[in-house]
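Figure 3 (text version): structure tokens given as input.
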């Protein structure tokens, strides 16, 4: 009996390893032949949505939203026709052949007008929120290119609103931004690279590699709380969203940090403010957090020198998820004193900066993508949804830029929550302003809870922390 079990186990391991090796060879061979194979990380994301099973639910979509001066459908279509649809993946659909690695194939029936949806009637803030909430719970069709462009031509105050829905397999937030930059005007110069890690820093990370892998694969899931559902609903479950511009300007924030005796970074301050806002919200609802929740923080491994630079149409493989990394960060939700909370966030972030976790996560996702579909889908669900929320903080252009014959007045990102992860919390700096956006499962946070997080608790938390820095 024991020998039989060992034989079955050995055969299973040989099948898994053999399939992964064959898949890797197929992927490299297709690259060499000039084909466009789907990247391993993107394949893993698609497998997690069930695309290979024939019953996909493409709900893991990045929603990049722009507040624009008045523009219209014709201007948006011109941008896509002249710039974005030059990228091969933007006019392609994924193909999953039985004995080959999946690849992108041009959609022979592609019609740009089918991908651009316009709304000519006036939309109030509440109407816009309701429509975006619907989009967050609506899968993209699998038989067309995995994106949509929604242009709301009139949201009042002589403004329009644009929402670009892009499936995550096509790119992360930075890929989306860099693709958008291809049609932007008045872009700032590329950010100067601070250089890569030194040799001593790289060697110092080597002993941490096993620990980072173990943490990502075997970390215990967060317990159900006011922010994390015990039993996730279906992928198309109801969601809500909202956003707000923070009164504090970026240069004012930086000046307060520079003048403070203790040295902190903008990221550390915003991370602490996010944790404090979550805690204050839960306490106000009578559901205080008992433990510090984990946030899946998605990070780009692209060098800083590529920021604000459009993705080259000559290198379409850089458009995608090949540089997507992640860390699991404990949010600082101890509201005893703002300074203690800020110091807690600083320790956590600085530990992560010296950790190989983002690179390990990137390679693990690629390896999972090389595995057979049932196994890759299972491992993705086991390893990816252990946290309570997704959190991201993006540094956008410091000056105002233009797009689609309009000026960009504001930027927000929304990504629908997945599985047990109950919410997505995002901050972005643009044109010397900070915006915050939240979307969440309706069963976890109702519309008023989401509005309070954006308009009340995050500004209050940031005010508390900056006030503490100034008083010290």
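Below: residues designed for each position.
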């Amino acid at each position: 009996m024991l020998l039989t079990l060992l034989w079955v186990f050995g055969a299973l391991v040989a099948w898994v390893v053999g399939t992964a090796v064959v898949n890797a060879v197929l992927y490299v061979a297709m690259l060499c032949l000039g084909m466009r194979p789907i990247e391993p990380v993107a394949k893993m994301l698609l497998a997690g949505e069930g695309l290979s099973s024939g019953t996909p639910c493409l709900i893991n979509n990045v929603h990049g939203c722009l507040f624009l001066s008045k523009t219209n459908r014709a201007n948006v279509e011109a941008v896509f026709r002249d710039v974005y649809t030059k990228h091969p993946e933007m006019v392609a659909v994924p193909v999953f052949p039985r004995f080959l690695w999946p690849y992108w194939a041009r959609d022979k029936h592609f019609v740009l007008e089918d991908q651009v949806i316009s709304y000519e009637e006036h939309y109030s803030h509440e109407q816009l929120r309701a429509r975006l909430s619907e989009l967050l719970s609506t899968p993209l069709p699998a038989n067309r290119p995995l994106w949509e462009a929604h242009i709301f031509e009139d949201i009042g105050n002589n403004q329009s609103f644009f929402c670009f829905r892009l499936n995550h397999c096509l790119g992360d937030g930075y890929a989306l931004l860099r693709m958008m930059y291809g049609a932007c005007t008045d872009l700032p110069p590329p950010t100067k690279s601070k250089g890569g890690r030194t040799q001593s820093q790289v060697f110092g990370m080597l002993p941490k590699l096993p620990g980072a892998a173990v943490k990502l694969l075997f970390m215990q899931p967060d317990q159900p709380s006011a922010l994390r559902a015990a039993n996730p609903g279906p992928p198309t479950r109801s969601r809500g969203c909202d956003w707000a511009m923070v009164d504090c300007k970026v240069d004012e924030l930086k000046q307060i940090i520079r003048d403070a005796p203790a040295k902190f970074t903008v990221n550390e301050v915003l991370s602490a403010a996010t944790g404090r806002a979550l805690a204050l919200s839960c306490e106000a609802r009578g559901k205080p957090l008992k433990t510090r929740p984990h946030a899946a923080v998605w990070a780009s491994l692209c060098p800083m020198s590529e920021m604000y630079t459009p993705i080259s149409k000559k290198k379409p493989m850089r458009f995608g998820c090949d540089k997507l990394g992640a860390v699991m960060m404990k949010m600082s939700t101890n509201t005893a004193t703002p300074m203690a909370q800020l110091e807690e966030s600083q320790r956590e972030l600085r530990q992560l900066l010296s950790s190989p976790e983002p690179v390990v996560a990137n390679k693990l996702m690629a390896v999972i993508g090389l595995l057979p579909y049932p196994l890759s889908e299972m491992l993705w669900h086991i390893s990816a949804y252990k946290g309570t929320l997704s959190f991201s903080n993006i540094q956008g252009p410091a000056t105002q830029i233009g797009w689609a014959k309009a000026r960009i007045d504001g930027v927000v990102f929304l990504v629908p929550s997945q599985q047990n992860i109950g919410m997505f919390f995002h901050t972005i700096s643009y044109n010397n302003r900070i915006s915050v956006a939240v979307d969440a499962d309706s069963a976890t946070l109702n519309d008023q809870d989401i509005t309070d997080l954006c308009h009340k608790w995050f500004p209050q938390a940031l005010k508390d922390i900056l006030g503490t820095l100034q008083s010290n």
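The chain has a mean pLDDT of 85.
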